[in-house]
Specification:
Number of helices: 11
Radius of gyration: 20 Å
Low-confidence stretches: none
Largest sheet: 7 strands, mixed
Number of strands: 19
Mean pLDDT: 97
Oligomer: single chain
Amino acid sequence: MKAAVLWELGQPLSIEEVELDPPKAGEVRVKIGAAGICRSDHHYMKKEGSIATPAVLGHEGSGTVIELGEGVTTLNVGDRVILSFVPNCGRCKYCLTNRANLCAAHAATGATMFDGTTRLHQGDTRINHMGKVACFAQEAVVPESGCVKVPDNFPFPQAAYIGCCVTTGVGGAIFNAGVHPGSTVAVVGCGGVGLNALQGARLNGATRIIAVDIDDGRLEFAGRFGATHFVNPTHGDPVARIKELTDGAGVDYAFEAFGASETIETCYHSIRRGGTATILGLAPIGDDPVIPGIDLVRNQKTLKGSYYGSARPRVDFDTMVDLYLNGKLDLDSLEGKHYSLDNIMDAYADLEKGVPGRGVITDFS
Protein backbone atom coordinates (compact mmCIF):
# COMPACT_ATOMS: atom_id res chain seq x y z
CA MET A 1 0.00 0.00 0.00
CA LYS A 2 0.97 3.67 -0.25
CA ALA A 3 2.16 5.61 2.80
CA ALA A 4 4.04 8.81 3.68
CA VAL A 5 7.20 7.73 5.50
CA LEU A 6 9.48 9.80 7.73
CA TRP A 7 12.87 8.16 7.26
CA GLU A 8 14.82 10.56 9.48
CA LEU A 9 13.99 13.39 11.85
CA GLY A 10 14.26 16.77 10.15
CA GLN A 11 13.39 15.40 6.71
CA PRO A 12 10.24 15.76 4.57
CA LEU A 13 7.88 12.83 4.18
CA SER A 14 8.47 10.43 1.31
CA ILE A 15 5.62 8.65 -0.49
CA GLU A 16 6.51 4.96 -0.52
CA GLU A 17 5.07 1.53 -1.15
CA VAL A 18 5.06 -0.32 2.18
CA GLU A 19 3.64 -3.54 3.54
CA LEU A 20 1.05 -3.80 6.30
CA ASP A 21 0.77 -7.07 8.21
CA PRO A 22 -2.66 -8.37 9.25
CA PRO A 23 -4.05 -7.35 12.65
CA LYS A 24 -3.10 -9.46 15.64
CA ALA A 25 -5.32 -10.20 18.62
CA GLY A 26 -7.14 -7.10 19.85
CA GLU A 27 -6.38 -5.13 16.67
CA VAL A 28 -8.27 -4.08 13.56
CA ARG A 29 -7.37 -3.02 10.06
CA VAL A 30 -8.86 0.26 8.84
CA LYS A 31 -9.14 1.81 5.39
CA ILE A 32 -8.32 5.48 5.98
CA GLY A 33 -11.01 7.95 4.95
CA ALA A 34 -9.48 11.20 6.17
CA ALA A 35 -6.28 12.37 7.88
CA GLY A 36 -5.97 15.85 9.39
CA ILE A 37 -2.93 18.06 8.90
CA CYS A 38 -1.65 18.78 12.42
CA ARG A 39 1.40 20.70 13.59
CA SER A 40 2.37 17.83 15.92
CA ASP A 41 3.46 15.74 12.91
CA HIS A 42 5.37 18.69 11.52
CA HIS A 43 7.55 18.87 14.65
CA TYR A 44 9.23 15.63 13.56
CA MET A 45 9.84 16.90 10.04
CA LYS A 46 11.51 19.98 11.55
CA LYS A 47 13.46 17.94 14.13
CA GLU A 48 11.59 19.67 16.96
CA GLY A 49 10.26 16.42 18.43
CA SER A 50 11.44 12.87 18.88
CA ILE A 51 10.04 9.65 17.43
CA ALA A 52 11.72 6.38 16.49
CA THR A 53 12.32 6.30 12.74
CA PRO A 54 11.44 5.24 10.16
CA ALA A 55 7.81 5.98 10.95
CA VAL A 56 4.51 6.61 9.26
CA LEU A 57 3.10 9.77 10.81
CA GLY A 58 -0.51 10.90 11.01
CA HIS A 59 -2.51 10.74 14.22
CA GLU A 60 -5.75 12.59 13.38
CA GLY A 61 -7.71 10.10 11.36
CA SER A 62 -10.91 8.27 10.55
CA GLY A 63 -11.85 5.36 8.35
CA THR A 64 -13.70 2.10 7.86
CA VAL A 65 -12.94 -1.21 9.56
CA ILE A 66 -12.03 -3.82 6.93
CA GLU A 67 -10.53 -6.66 9.01
CA LEU A 68 -10.77 -7.86 12.61
CA GLY A 69 -8.05 -9.49 14.67
CA GLU A 70 -8.72 -12.34 17.05
CA GLY A 71 -10.89 -11.49 20.05
CA VAL A 72 -12.26 -8.16 18.79
CA THR A 73 -15.81 -7.82 20.12
CA THR A 74 -16.75 -4.12 20.00
CA LEU A 75 -16.36 -3.55 16.25
CA ASN A 76 -17.52 -5.12 13.01
CA VAL A 77 -16.26 -5.01 9.44
CA GLY A 78 -17.87 -2.00 7.78
CA ASP A 79 -17.97 0.17 10.91
CA ARG A 80 -17.00 3.81 10.39
CA VAL A 81 -14.60 4.88 13.15
CA ILE A 82 -12.63 7.74 14.66
CA LEU A 83 -9.02 6.81 15.46
CA SER A 84 -7.51 7.72 18.83
CA PHE A 85 -3.77 8.40 19.12
CA VAL A 86 -3.98 7.39 22.79
CA PRO A 87 -5.54 3.92 22.70
CA ASN A 88 -5.78 2.71 26.28
CA CYS A 89 -5.15 -0.60 28.00
CA GLY A 90 -8.02 -0.27 30.49
CA ARG A 91 -5.92 -1.84 33.25
CA CYS A 92 -3.24 0.61 34.38
CA LYS A 93 -3.64 3.07 37.25
CA TYR A 94 -4.44 5.95 34.89
CA CYS A 95 -7.12 4.02 33.02
CA LEU A 96 -8.68 2.85 36.28
CA THR A 97 -8.80 6.38 37.70
CA ASN A 98 -10.61 7.98 34.73
CA ARG A 99 -7.45 9.33 33.06
CA ALA A 100 -7.27 7.12 29.99
CA ASN A 101 -5.51 9.91 28.07
CA LEU A 102 -2.45 9.18 30.24
CA CYS A 103 -2.51 5.37 29.77
CA ALA A 104 0.79 3.95 31.05
CA ALA A 105 0.82 1.01 28.63
CA HIS A 106 0.46 3.29 25.63
CA ALA A 107 3.17 5.64 26.92
CA ALA A 108 5.54 2.71 27.50
CA THR A 109 5.14 1.28 23.98
CA GLY A 110 5.11 4.59 22.07
CA ALA A 111 5.14 4.20 18.30
CA THR A 112 4.79 0.42 18.33
CA MET A 113 1.71 -1.65 19.01
CA PHE A 114 0.94 -2.72 22.58
CA ASP A 115 3.05 -5.89 22.15
CA GLY A 116 6.13 -3.81 21.25
CA THR A 117 6.16 -4.82 17.58
CA THR A 118 5.09 -3.07 14.35
CA ARG A 119 2.77 -4.10 11.53
CA LEU A 120 4.36 -1.74 9.00
CA HIS A 121 7.49 -2.63 7.06
CA GLN A 122 9.27 -2.21 3.76
CA GLY A 123 10.96 -5.51 3.09
CA ASP A 124 12.99 -6.31 6.20
CA THR A 125 12.91 -2.71 7.47
CA ARG A 126 10.33 -2.30 10.22
CA ILE A 127 8.42 0.99 10.30
CA ASN A 128 6.90 2.59 13.40
CA HIS A 129 3.32 3.80 13.85
CA MET A 130 2.85 7.34 15.21
CA GLY A 131 0.45 7.12 18.14
CA LYS A 132 -0.44 3.56 17.08
CA VAL A 133 -2.42 5.30 14.31
CA ALA A 134 -0.10 6.08 11.34
CA CYS A 135 -2.94 7.38 9.18
CA PHE A 136 -0.80 9.06 6.51
CA ALA A 137 -1.38 5.87 4.56
CA GLN A 138 -4.08 4.06 2.64
CA GLU A 139 -4.67 1.66 5.52
CA ALA A 140 -3.67 1.21 9.16
CA VAL A 141 -3.66 -1.51 11.77
CA VAL A 142 -4.70 -0.06 15.12
CA PRO A 143 -5.70 -1.34 18.58
CA GLU A 144 -9.39 -2.05 19.09
CA SER A 145 -9.37 0.46 21.95
CA GLY A 146 -8.14 3.10 19.51
CA CYS A 147 -11.32 2.96 17.43
CA VAL A 148 -14.62 4.64 18.31
CA LYS A 149 -17.62 3.86 16.12
CA VAL A 150 -19.62 6.73 14.60
CA PRO A 151 -22.86 6.71 12.55
CA ASP A 152 -22.50 5.25 9.07
CA ASN A 153 -23.07 8.60 7.35
CA PHE A 154 -20.80 10.65 9.61
CA PRO A 155 -18.37 12.61 7.37
CA PHE A 156 -14.79 11.39 7.42
CA PRO A 157 -13.10 14.82 7.79
CA GLN A 158 -15.23 15.80 10.79
CA ALA A 159 -14.63 12.38 12.36
CA ALA A 160 -10.88 12.80 11.90
CA TYR A 161 -10.96 16.25 13.54
CA ILE A 162 -12.62 14.75 16.61
CA GLY A 163 -9.64 12.37 16.76
CA CYS A 164 -7.28 15.25 17.63
CA CYS A 165 -7.91 19.00 17.34
CA VAL A 166 -11.55 19.02 18.44
CA THR A 167 -11.05 16.85 21.50
CA THR A 168 -7.77 18.58 22.42
CA GLY A 169 -9.28 22.07 22.17
CA VAL A 170 -12.85 21.59 23.35
CA GLY A 171 -11.75 19.10 25.99
CA GLY A 172 -9.04 21.43 27.25
CA ALA A 173 -11.64 24.12 27.91
CA ILE A 174 -14.38 21.86 29.27
CA PHE A 175 -12.76 18.79 30.84
CA ASN A 176 -9.40 20.20 31.95
CA ALA A 177 -9.83 23.89 32.76
CA GLY A 178 -13.54 23.76 33.50
CA VAL A 179 -14.38 27.18 32.04
CA HIS A 180 -17.38 28.53 33.93
CA PRO A 181 -20.34 30.60 32.69
CA GLY A 182 -19.71 34.33 32.55
CA SER A 183 -15.92 33.97 32.57
CA THR A 184 -13.32 35.72 30.43
CA VAL A 185 -11.05 33.64 28.18
CA ALA A 186 -8.04 34.18 25.91
CA VAL A 187 -6.86 31.64 23.36
CA VAL A 188 -3.31 32.13 22.06
CA GLY A 189 -2.94 30.53 18.62
CA CYS A 190 -5.93 30.06 16.31
CA GLY A 191 -5.05 26.91 14.41
CA GLY A 192 -7.17 23.76 14.64
CA VAL A 193 -6.71 23.27 18.39
CA GLY A 194 -7.14 26.96 19.22
CA LEU A 195 -10.36 27.26 17.23
CA ASN A 196 -11.78 24.39 19.22
CA ALA A 197 -10.64 25.87 22.53
CA LEU A 198 -12.70 28.91 21.50
CA GLN A 199 -15.66 26.61 20.85
CA GLY A 200 -15.20 24.89 24.20
CA ALA A 201 -15.17 28.25 26.00
CA ARG A 202 -18.33 29.28 24.16
CA LEU A 203 -20.05 25.99 24.95
CA ASN A 204 -19.34 26.46 28.66
CA GLY A 205 -20.77 29.95 28.69
CA ALA A 206 -17.75 32.27 28.62
CA THR A 207 -18.92 35.77 27.73
CA ARG A 208 -15.71 37.51 26.65
CA ILE A 209 -13.54 35.30 24.46
CA ILE A 210 -10.32 36.82 23.11
CA ALA A 211 -8.58 35.25 20.10
CA VAL A 212 -4.83 35.93 19.83
CA ASP A 213 -2.88 35.25 16.62
CA ILE A 214 -0.28 36.97 14.44
CA ASP A 215 -2.35 36.38 11.29
CA ASP A 216 -5.34 38.68 10.70
CA GLY A 217 -6.96 36.10 8.43
CA ARG A 218 -6.93 33.52 11.18
CA LEU A 219 -8.32 36.07 13.64
CA GLU A 220 -11.20 36.85 11.32
CA PHE A 221 -11.83 33.12 10.91
CA ALA A 222 -11.82 32.69 14.72
CA GLY A 223 -14.96 34.80 14.91
CA ARG A 224 -16.93 31.85 13.54
CA PHE A 225 -16.00 29.75 16.55
CA GLY A 226 -16.93 32.03 19.42
CA ALA A 227 -14.27 34.74 19.60
CA THR A 228 -15.69 38.11 20.61
CA HIS A 229 -12.45 40.12 20.64
CA PHE A 230 -9.25 39.88 18.61
CA VAL A 231 -5.60 40.61 19.38
CA ASN A 232 -2.70 40.54 16.91
CA PRO A 233 0.68 40.56 18.75
CA THR A 234 2.38 42.14 15.73
CA HIS A 235 0.39 45.31 16.42
CA GLY A 236 1.50 45.71 20.04
CA ASP A 237 1.96 43.96 23.39
CA PRO A 238 -0.73 41.22 23.46
CA VAL A 239 -0.76 40.96 27.26
CA ALA A 240 -1.35 44.69 27.63
CA ARG A 241 -4.16 44.54 25.10
CA ILE A 242 -5.80 41.56 26.82
CA LYS A 243 -5.71 43.43 30.12
CA GLU A 244 -7.27 46.48 28.45
CA LEU A 245 -10.12 44.24 27.35
CA THR A 246 -10.60 42.91 30.89
CA ASP A 247 -10.56 46.15 32.92
CA GLY A 248 -6.86 45.73 33.68
CA ALA A 249 -7.27 42.39 35.46
CA GLY A 250 -6.47 39.75 32.84
CA VAL A 251 -8.63 36.79 31.91
CA ASP A 252 -10.02 34.04 34.12
CA TYR A 253 -8.73 31.36 31.74
CA ALA A 254 -6.06 31.43 29.05
CA PHE A 255 -5.17 28.65 26.63
CA GLU A 256 -1.96 28.24 24.62
CA ALA A 257 -2.61 26.36 21.39
CA PHE A 258 0.48 26.91 19.25
CA GLY A 259 3.43 25.30 21.01
CA ALA A 260 6.29 27.74 21.73
CA SER A 261 7.89 29.32 24.79
CA GLU A 262 6.85 32.82 23.70
CA THR A 263 3.18 31.92 23.35
CA ILE A 264 3.22 29.97 26.63
CA GLU A 265 4.59 33.06 28.38
CA THR A 266 1.92 35.24 26.74
CA CYS A 267 -0.73 32.79 27.90
CA TYR A 268 0.54 32.80 31.49
CA HIS A 269 0.90 36.58 31.79
CA SER A 270 -2.60 37.10 30.38
CA ILE A 271 -4.38 35.59 33.38
CA ARG A 272 -5.64 37.54 36.39
CA ARG A 273 -4.86 36.86 40.03
CA GLY A 274 -6.27 33.42 40.76
CA GLY A 275 -6.56 32.67 37.05
CA THR A 276 -5.69 29.50 35.17
CA ALA A 277 -3.33 29.13 32.19
CA THR A 278 -3.69 25.83 30.34
CA ILE A 279 -1.11 24.67 27.79
CA LEU A 280 -2.55 22.68 24.88
CA GLY A 281 0.26 23.05 22.30
CA LEU A 282 3.40 20.94 22.12
CA ALA A 283 6.49 23.17 22.18
CA PRO A 284 9.67 22.03 20.42
CA ILE A 285 12.17 20.16 22.58
CA GLY A 286 14.36 22.67 24.40
CA ASP A 287 12.05 25.63 23.82
CA ASP A 288 11.18 26.21 27.46
CA PRO A 289 9.24 29.19 28.85
CA VAL A 290 10.36 31.35 31.76
CA ILE A 291 7.66 31.61 34.42
CA PRO A 292 8.17 33.95 37.42
CA GLY A 293 7.85 31.80 40.53
CA ILE A 294 6.99 34.65 42.87
CA ASP A 295 4.09 35.76 40.65
CA LEU A 296 2.82 32.20 40.46
CA VAL A 297 2.60 31.99 44.25
CA ARG A 298 1.67 35.51 45.35
CA ASN A 299 -1.07 35.82 42.78
CA GLN A 300 -2.18 32.21 43.27
CA LYS A 301 -2.15 31.48 39.57
CA THR A 302 -2.51 28.02 38.10
CA LEU A 303 -0.32 26.83 35.21
CA LYS A 304 -1.03 23.36 33.88
CA GLY A 305 -0.83 21.12 30.89
CA SER A 306 -3.70 19.41 29.12
CA TYR A 307 -2.93 16.31 27.06
CA TYR A 308 -5.60 15.31 24.55
CA GLY A 309 -8.05 17.63 26.31
CA SER A 310 -7.90 15.43 29.42
CA ALA A 311 -10.51 13.37 27.57
CA ARG A 312 -11.41 9.69 27.79
CA PRO A 313 -11.56 9.04 24.04
CA ARG A 314 -13.84 6.00 24.16
CA VAL A 315 -16.38 8.04 26.13
CA ASP A 316 -15.79 11.65 25.14
CA PHE A 317 -15.56 11.15 21.37
CA ASP A 318 -19.26 10.27 21.59
CA THR A 319 -19.87 13.58 23.35
CA MET A 320 -18.19 15.47 20.50
CA VAL A 321 -20.22 13.51 17.92
CA ASP A 322 -23.47 14.35 19.73
CA LEU A 323 -22.54 18.03 20.06
CA TYR A 324 -21.88 18.19 16.31
CA LEU A 325 -25.03 16.32 15.32
CA ASN A 326 -27.11 18.61 17.56
CA GLY A 327 -25.64 21.80 16.11
CA LYS A 328 -23.67 22.77 19.21
CA LEU A 329 -20.22 22.21 17.71
CA ASP A 330 -19.22 23.66 14.35
CA LEU A 331 -16.99 21.18 12.56
CA ASP A 332 -18.14 22.10 9.05
CA SER A 333 -16.61 25.60 9.17
CA LEU A 334 -13.46 23.99 10.56
CA GLU A 335 -12.99 21.95 7.39
CA GLY A 336 -10.17 23.43 5.33
CA LYS A 337 -8.51 22.58 2.04
CA HIS A 338 -8.50 18.94 0.88
CA TYR A 339 -5.31 17.27 -0.33
CA SER A 340 -4.15 13.98 -1.79
CA LEU A 341 -1.64 11.83 0.06
CA ASP A 342 0.81 12.45 -2.79
CA ASN A 343 0.66 16.20 -2.05
CA ILE A 344 1.04 15.98 1.70
CA MET A 345 4.05 18.30 1.82
CA ASP A 346 1.98 20.97 0.05
CA ALA A 347 -0.49 20.63 2.90
CA TYR A 348 2.26 21.30 5.43
CA ALA A 349 3.51 24.26 3.41
CA ASP A 350 -0.01 25.72 3.67
CA LEU A 351 -0.01 25.04 7.42
CA GLU A 352 3.20 27.04 7.74
CA LYS A 353 1.65 29.87 5.72
CA GLY A 354 -1.26 30.05 8.17
CA VAL A 355 -4.00 29.08 5.72
CA PRO A 356 -7.23 29.18 7.80
CA GLY A 357 -9.12 25.98 8.54
CA ARG A 358 -7.94 22.45 9.17
CA GLY A 359 -6.35 20.93 6.09
CA VAL A 360 -7.28 17.29 5.50
CA ILE A 361 -6.14 14.44 3.26
CA THR A 362 -9.11 12.73 1.64
CA ASP A 363 -7.56 11.29 -1.54
CA PHE A 364 -5.41 8.23 -0.85
CA SER A 365 -5.35 6.81 -4.37
